[in-house]
Amino acid sequence: QLQLVESGGGVVQPGGSLRLSCSSCRFNFSTADMSWVRQAPGKGPEWVSSISGRGSRTVYAESVKGRFTIARDYTKNTLSLQMNNLKPEDTALYFCATGGILGWRSASWGQGTQVTVSS
Asked: What is the pLDDT of residues 101-114, one digit of tens each?
């Protein structure tokens, strides 16, 4: 394990915003494709978004497109997920993963941070 650490989760009302962050002192975020993945209780993992190692390409699941933004901060070696206009169906445990859209399932994941959207 690379001990990726996610943070920034919490409880928000529908329409609210959260910014998730992922960090690791052991993994170089500068060159690797990275992803955000989420898993709701009793459900399988759902891919959310990926960003290329150089940060030039981002892709999103249709369910979050236009609401979520994935980004890197190369100086801090962190990965973020800005989540706006949150919906109840966004409620899940969110993980960052070392791998892009094709490799996230077999990649190293963090421990996750819980996002709960409820009125």
From this structure: 888 888 888 899 99
